[in-house]
Amino acid sequence: MAYKRPHLKKLGEIVRAHGSGRPDLALLARELGAVVHRHSLALADELDALRRAERFERWRLGAHRGEGAEVLIMVWPPNHATPVHDHAGLWGLEMALYGALSVENWQRGPDGSLRAGGRQWLGPGDACWFEDAASGLHRCRNLSRQACALSLHVYGGRLEHYLAYAPTPQAAWRTRRQRARVIGQLA
Questions:
Q1: Distance of alpha carbon 90 from alpha carbon 13, whole angstroms
Q2: For residues 106 and 157, is the Cβ–Cβ distance under 8 A?
Q3: 21 φ, ψ to 5°?
Q4: pLDDT tens-digit map of 34-43
């Protein structure tokens, strides 16, 4: 029997081929991006049911095995934005699969304050990555006001919790620990 989602399977195989340590994220992005660029319409078809979702969702791609990388597909409803958040000290790579995302990087000052840094725009096959907790602070948003966006996320371990940051009237930032809920698993 043929695999129902061969292009998604290929993305998972590429991540696993990079081993359980810290991969060369630029090389990983290039290899994943080549598949997405070459097969963007087929991937959109394979993920058609997710493109109709009405809320933000995380789906695990394949089984997470121990300390290796975790691979998630995220569903972004129209104009959905995350709060400024971190990734619990994990390294990570984020790539648009369908639609377009804005990734706004944030930096922590010596006094603990946060300030916006640069911004990246990701279309299908475009990626950004972070190597540590200091470079992984950001906010993401689906740029479309009418259509869902889908993205691939690879993390250097299981993302179970993260910190979300919100400004307060006193110009300080409130921190809240959030659980990274995964809806289900895509084979």
A1: 21
A2: no
A3: -85, -160
A4: 999 999 999 9
Alpha helix stretches (DSSP H) within the chain? 6-17, 25-38, 40-46, 48-51
Q: Express each pLDDT in 116-154 by its tens digit.
A: 889 999 999 999 999 876 678 999 999 999 999 999 999
Tell me the mean pLDDT in the region 49-77.
Answer: 87
Q: How many CB atoms lie within 10 A of CB 31?
A: 17
pTM: 0.92
* Number of other residues whose CB lies within 10 A of the CB of residue 156: 23
Direct distance between the N- and C-terminal alpha carbons of the chain, in angstroms, rounded to an integer: 14
Distance between CA atoms of residues 71 and 127, nearest Å:
14
Q: Does residue 40 sit in helix, strand or coil? A: helix
Is 25:60 a contact under the CB 8 Å cutoff? Answer: no
Among 98, 185, 104, 81, residue whose Cα is nearest residue 149? 98
Four-point Cα dihedral 112, 168, 86, 117, nearest 10: -70
The CA-based angle 174-122-63, given to 5 degrees, is 75
